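Dear colleague,

As promised, here are the two records you asked about, laid out in our usual form so they can be pasted straight into your sheet.

NAME FIELD: protein one
SEQUENCE, THEN STRUCTURE:
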Amino acid sequence: MADTLVFIPAWNEEENLPAVLDELRAGLPNADVLVIDDGSTDGTATVAREHGAEVLSFGENRGLQAGIAAGYAWGEEHGYELVGRVDADGQHPVDELTRLLEIVRSGEADVAVGSRFASGDGYDEFRYEASPSRRFGIAVLRRAMRAALGRPFLDATSGMYAVDRKALAALGKPYTSGAPEVESLLRLREAGLRVVEVPVHMRERAGGESKLRGSKAVRLVLTVASTLLVYGLWRRHARGRRS
C-alpha cells in the first residue's frame, strides 16, 4: 500500500472526474486515490472505478461536510502517512498538490493549504481578479479568520490540502457547520498543529459556480460568522472551566 492518499469529494461529477483522475495518476503515480461519491445520481462511481480510484459511496447526498470528514477518516483508518484533498471540478493542478505534499513530507508543516491569494516567487499578488461580491466576501472572511486564528489567512475556503497523520484525527470528525474548510482551520489551531498557506495557481472551474458569488457570497459570510461565533463561545466556556 502507498503511504499517500488523495481523496476527492464528488457529487454528480462524471463529466469532470476522468480528467482529474488521469492527471492525478500521471502526476502522483504512487499515491492511492479515493473518490467520496456523495450520493450521486449519475455515473460518478462507475467513472471513478474505471479510472483506477477506490470509491466510497454514500446512499444519499450528505453534503460536502460529510465527504471531507469521510476522506480524512479513511486515511486515518487505513494507516496513511500523508493525505491530500482536491476538488472534483478540475481547478486544482496535480503539480501544485505535489508541492503541498512535499512541504508536509519534509516536516516543514503538518498541514499545507493551497492559496489563490497568497503571493510568492512566481505567484503574483493579484493574479486572480474577483467580482465586487467576491471581493466583499473575501474581505470579510479575512478579517474574521484573522480574529479567530490570531494570524492572517488569505484563502480560508480553499479545498486543496495536504496533511500529515497527526492532523487526521482532528479533520476526520463530523463537521457541524456549513463552512467545513473554516471549521478545519479552527480545529487545527486547537490541536496545536503547524499550518502553512502556500501560494498556488488554480484553474477556472470546469463546472458549477463559486461559493463567493452574488447571494452565495452573503450566505457563506453569514455561515462563517455563525461558525466563528460558536467557536468563540466555546473557547470562552473552555477557558472558564480551566480557570
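NAME FIELD: protein two
SEQUENCE, THEN STRUCTURE:
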Amino acid sequence: MVLDSNDIGDGASGRNGGQVIPGLKYDPDDLEEMFGGQLGSKLVATVAAGPDLVFDLIRRHRIACEPVRSGWLQLATSEAALRPLRTRARQWRERGAAVDLLDRAETARLTGSQRYCGGLLDRRGGTVHPLEFVRGLATAAQHAGSRVFTDSAAIRLDRVGNEWQVSTAEGSVTSPHVVLATNAYSDEFTGALKRTFVAVPSLQAATAPLSQEQLRGILPERQSVSDTWRLLRYFRLNGTGRLIMGSRGVFGRTSLIEAAKPQHRAVREIYPQLADVPFDYHWSGWVAMTPDHLPHLHEVAPGIIAGLGYNGRGVAMAITMGALLAKYVLGTPATELGFPVTPIRPIALHALSRWGAAAAIQYLRLLDAFGRVANTWS
C-alpha cells in the first residue's frame, strides 16, 4: 500500500530534470577505496546498473514517458575541468562501461554549442519524461496488486504488537514493514531522518518549442547534458522540442521567473542562436543533499527502512534504491545487498544548514561567474 501526501509525482519524482545518469558523484576507484574492496566493488556495480533498471521497467510495463537512451554528456567548462573527466572515463571503461572521452570538435557536434572544450559521453544514460514515468510506475504497481492512496499524508506511526500502524486523517494501515520514501520532502513525521540532509532548491525553465531549423543544430542525438560548473547546469530536449535548462534555485520568496534568470542566461550563453526564444514554463522543487554526497539506506527501527539523499541523480538512483529496499524487506541480508545499510546520523546544527546552503550557493554562483569571465578573456 502506497500513501502519498499529495498526488503521484507532485514532488521531485515528477518535477525532476528527467536525466537518467549512471553512477554517483564519486568515481569507481574512490567508491572502492571508501567502502573497501568487496563492498566497494558491489556498490559500483549496483549504482552502474541504475539506467538498466529504469529502461527495463519502461520496456516491461510499456510506460509512455518519452524514453530516449542515447547517453549522458558531462561537459568540461575549462581545460582544468577536463582532466578529472579523463580519469572518470578511464575508470568506467576499465569496468566495461561504454564511456568515451570527447574532444572539442566532437563535443560541439553533439551539443551544437561552442561553449565546451570537451567532455565524456556515457552511453548508459538517457532521458525520460519524469511525471509520465512515475505515473507509469504507479499504474504498474496497481496492476501488480498494490493499492495507491493520494492526498493521504501519514500523521502517526505506532507500534501495535509485532507490527506498525500508520495513521492518516482518514484511516490507518497496519504492516510488519514500513518504507519511508520521502527524500527531500521528509517532514517531522520522519523524525531524525529529516535532519540527515539539506534540502536545496532546484529550478528548471523550458523554452517554447524550437523550430525544425533550430532543432537540427542542437543536441542532434538527444543526449542529456550536465556541465562542470560548481553550480552545474543540466539540460535536454523534451519530446515536444523544448529545451529544458536546470540549475540551483533560490531560497526565499522569489517569483519563479525572477529566480530563473540564471537559467535564462545559461541558455543564451550556451546557445546564442536561441537568444530570442521565449520561456514558456518554470518549476522548482527540493533536492536532498547529504554531507557525504552519497545516498543513504537506513534501518530506522526494526521493520522501518528508508532510502534518501540522491544528490541530484534521483531518476536512476531512486529506482535503484527502490529495488534495494524491496530486497531488504523480502529478507535479503544487508551484507548481500551490494549497498551499505548505515545508521542515521543527523547533521549537527541542522537548523542552520538552510542558511549555510543559501550562502554557499551564492558563493559558488559568484565563483562560476568569475570563471566565465576569465574563460572569455582567455
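A couple of things worth noting about protein two: The chain has a mean pLDDT of 90. The first strand starts at residue 2 and ends at 3.

Best,
R.
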